Amino acid sequence: MSRWVMLLAFAVAAGFLIFGAVAVRPFGDPPRAEMDGYFNRFSQPEVAANNAVTAIVFDYRGYDTLGEATVLFTAVTGVALILRRWRA
Amino acid sequence: MTVVVRTIARLLFPVALAFGGYVIMHGHLTPGGGFQGGAVAASALAMVLVAFGPSRLKDKKGLLSALESLGGTAFVVLGFLGLGVTFFANVLAGSHGLFGRPVPYGPNPGDLNTAGTLPLMNWAVGFKVLAGLGAVVLLFALFGGEDDR
Q1: Mean pLDDT of chain A
Q2: For residues B19 and A46, is the Cβ–Cβ distance under 8 A?
Q3: Which of A19, A49, A76, A17 is nearest to B33 (CA)?
Q4: pTM to 2 decimals?
Q5: Rounded to a whole number, what is the distance in Å from the CA of B132 to chain A's nearest CA?
Q6: What is the largest CA-CA distance in chain B?
Q7: Fewest Cβ atoms nearer than 10 Å: which of A26, B16, B57, B64?
Q8: What average pLDDT does the structure give for chain B?
Q9: Cβ of A60: how many Cβ atoms within 10 Å?
């Protein structure tokens, strides 16, 4: 019984993956390219950074990076909290 | 670990740290940045931990903690620097001052003195990631027990 359920789940997941592989859009042809074009055109004149990815991560989406740094800080805090030597 | 591993680690440690610093420093020019360079430098710390055991870095916990706090605070302060426009506005870009040289559109050679607050933020995040990941690895190693000879 559980074997057939697992087979069914496997078939469904594999079907999704195969469908995704077949129906994927061609590379370099996004459905909406306005944002990409903006970053490509203006990240150098506006941010003066040659690396457009860094321009996005630290300038256009700087707030997102702040959240990412907070996630790292929280992870370190959790590890330090769990793995500390408790004084009896 | 054996003397072979220790010698190689001793040789590679400054190289790995320098490569991490390079990736952080050129974050606004080449692929990479604060997170990636910090992870590279933290891998150097992990290599020292594997080769020499956690007792070698036991008294560096305060330094790592200070670095992490410094990086996080510097990042937030640099974000607040642009509060005249918006939070995280790049006030230094194109100001012809510190990191303020403008960059023309198109491919151009690397100029470290560009991108405004981005290099400073890269350094802040780099120190933060270095200290954070290094502290995590160090805590795991200390939890695992004493050095094996």
Answers
A1: 83
A2: no
A3: A49
A4: 0.75
A5: 6
A6: 58
A7: A26
A8: 82
A9: 19
End-to-end CA distance of chain A: 51
Residue A45 and residue B102: Cβ atoms within 8 Å?
Answer: yes
- Name the residue among B23, B14, B15 with its Cα closest to residue B126: B23
Whose tokens are 């350094």? That residue is B123
Length of chain B: 149
* Residue ranges of domains in chain A: 2-61
CB contact under 8 A, A51 and B104: no
List residues of chain B with CB under 8 Å from any CB of chain A: 27-31, 33-35, 68, 72, 75-76, 79, 87-88, 90, 93-94, 100-106, 108, 110-111, 114-118, 121-122, 125, 128-129, 132, 135-136, 139-140, 142-143
Task: Tell me which DSSP letter residue B13 carries.
Answer: H
Measured CA distances, A11 to A22, A74, B9 (Å): 16, 39, 48
